[in-house]
Amino acid sequence: MGQISESQLAVRYSARAFFNSFLRDYEGDPRVLVTDRQLSIKTPKWELELSFSRKSALGAHRYQDQILLSKNGVTELVSFIDSVSLIANEFGASSETDLFIDQTKNSLANLEIILKHYISQRRSDRPHDYLQSEANLLLGHPFHPFPKCKKGLRPEDLLRYSPEFAKSFQLIWIQVPEEQLVGSLSSSSYHSNISELVQFELGPEFLGQVGWLPMHPLQWEAFVASGRADQIQVKKVERGKNDWSALSSMRTIYHSESTYQLKFSLPVKLTNSVRWLYPHECLRGAQVSDTWNTLPDQLTEHFGVQREPFFMSLSNEDGTALIESMVQFRNNSAPELSHDRHLLASLVEVDPFNDRSRLFDLTTIQAEQKGLEPAEFRSLWLDHFLTRVIGPLLDLGSLGHVYFGAHLQNIILDMKDGLPQGGC
Q1: pLDDT in tens, the chain (424 residues)
Q2: Dihedral through CA 402, CA 407, CA 411, CA 415, nearest 10?
Q3: Which of 41, 95, 159, 359 sits a CA distance of 20 to 30 A from 403?
C-alpha cells in the first residue's frame, strides 16, 4: 500500500462508494459515459473524468485517485468534495444540494477518523470473532454517496458509541409509573420477560419492581435536553452495571451474557435517515417470529432469524408510543457460538490497509492448515455458502413464502473449521 495516508485512503474509498452509487442511478443518463477505461461526466459547462484501475461487470469499479476537471479549455485536478459539489448541483434538486454535500463531507471526515483509530489499534491483527466482525465494518455500504454519515454526533460521541471504535458503555435505566409504559406486551408480561435482564443489569434487589425501561445514553441525553423528561414522572434513574457494545447498525447493542440484544430509537442520522424506531416496524419483528414458528423444520435447519419478540416505550398523553423512547428486545441467540459467528458484510469487506478481505485471509489460513490449495478451499467454502445459506434463503421464499432481502449487513454466518454451516 506504500505510504498512502489514512486521509488519502478515506478519499479513495469514499470516492469509490460515491461514484459507484452515482452510476447505479445515472449510468443511462446522456451526460454520463462509461468506457472500458474511464467514467466521464460531461455537461455544457464542465467535464469530469475518472480512470478505472479496475472495471467491474457488477459495478464495483475501482478508480485511479486522480479526478480531472475540464472547464473553459483548462484541465486540472479537482478534489473529491469539489467533484461532489459539481455533480450535486448538476443532478440534484437545488433545495437539497447543500445538505447532500454536507452529508458527504461528514461521511468522509468520519471515515478518516475511523481508519486512523483502526490502524493505531492494530485491530486487523486480532481474532475475528462475532463482536469484532460487527466492529470491523469500516467502509460501510459500497454503493452509497455517504456511507459513514453520522449526523447528530459530537466528536466524543462518535468515539464512544460508534461501533468502529470497539468501545463499551453502560445503559441508563429509568423507572416510571406502569401506566406510562406502552408497547406490544401487557405490563405483567413485559416485566416477566425482562426480569432476568433487570437482575443482570441492576441487581437482584430490583426484582419485583415495575416500570423499568432501558435507554441508550444518547437517547436519554436527548430526552432530557428536549424537556420531555420533565413531562414524565421519572421515579428513579439508575446506571446499568454492565458494559455493552454497539453492533454495526450502532443503534443495536450487544452483551454476550445478556438474554437480549437491545435496539433503540436514536437521535442520529446514519446514512440517509434519523434512526427512530416506529411501532409498525417493531410489530413486524414480532410477526416474523410468529411466522417462523409455523415453518417446517427442514426450512429452518440451516437458516434462522434473530427474533424480536416485543418492544416497549414511554407513553404520550394520548396513549401512543413516544417514538424517541422506544426500545426493541431481540433474542440473543447462541452467544456461545460468538467465536465462530461472523457478520457477512465485514467478512467480505476489503481491508483498506492491505487490500484483502478477511474472507480471503481466512480461507488462505484454512487451506494451509488442511493441506489444500487456496483455490480448492475457496471452492469448498463457496459450495458450503450456497448450500447452507443461499439455498435455504431461497427455499424460504419458494416453499415457505417468507422473503428476505439478502443484505450483507443483515446476514450472520455460523462457521466451523472455516466453512459456513448456516446463518441467520
Answers
A1: 457 899 999 999 999 999 999 999 999 999 999 999 999 999 999 999 999 999 999 999 999 999 999 999 999 999 999 999 999 999 988 889 999 999 999 999 999 999 999 888 765 555 568 888 898 899 989 999 999 999 999 999 999 999 999 899 999 999 999 999 999 999 999 999 999 999 999 999 999 899 999 999 999 999 999 888 778 889 999 999 999 999 999 999 999 999 999 999 999 998 888 889 999 888 888 888 888 888 888 888 888 888 899 999 999 989 999 999 999 999 987 655 667 889 999 999 999 999 999 999 999 999 999 999 999 999 999 999 999 999 998 998 898 888 887 678 889 999 999 999 988 8
A2: 120
A3: 359
Q: Which residue has the cell 474511464?
A: 38
Crossing angle of helices 6-26 and 80-91, in 10° steps, is: 20
The model's pTM is: 0.91
Measured at the alpha carbon of residue 178, what is the angle toward residues 173 and 179, in degrees to the nearest 5?
A: 125
CA distance 365 to 377: 10
- β-bridge partners, 236: 175
Among candidates 101, 100, 213, 217, which has minimal Cα distance to 154?
Answer: 217
Of 339, 355, 335, 276, residue with least CA distance to 311: 276
